[in-house]
Amino acid sequence: MPSFRLSAALLLSVAGCLALIAGLYWPALHGGFIFDDYPIFAENPAIQVHGWDSHAWQTVWHWSRSNIQRPLAMMTYAFNYAMGGSTFGFKLTNLIIHLINTMLVMLLAMRLLQAAWPTQHARQRGYCALGVAALWAIHPLQVSTVMYVVQRMEMLAFSFVVLALLAYWRGRRNQMTHQRAWPWFLLTAAFTAAGYAFKETAVLVPGYAMLMELTLLRFEASSPRTQRLWQLFYAAGVLSALAAIVFYVLPHYVFSGYFEGRDFSAWERELTQLRALPMYLGWMLLPLSSHLTFYYDNYIASTSLLQPATTLLGGLTLLALVILAGATYKRRPLLAFGIGWFFVAHVLTSAPLPLELVFEHRNYPALFGVLLALADLAYILSQKINVRMVVALVGAFALTLAFLTVLRASVWGSPFRLAVELTEINPGSLRAAQDLARSLMAMSGGDATSRFYAMSIAELERAARLPDASPLPEEALLIEASTHPGMPTQPWWDSLRNKLETRPLIPDTYAVLHRLAESRLSGNAGIDAEQLAACFAIATRKAPWREVLHADYAELAGSVLNNPTLAGEQWTLALKTDPTPADYGKRLAEYLVEKHRNEEAATVIATLRELHPALRDDPELNGWLEKIHDQASSSPSLPPARAL
Question: What is the pTM of this model?
Answer without folding.
Answer: 0.88
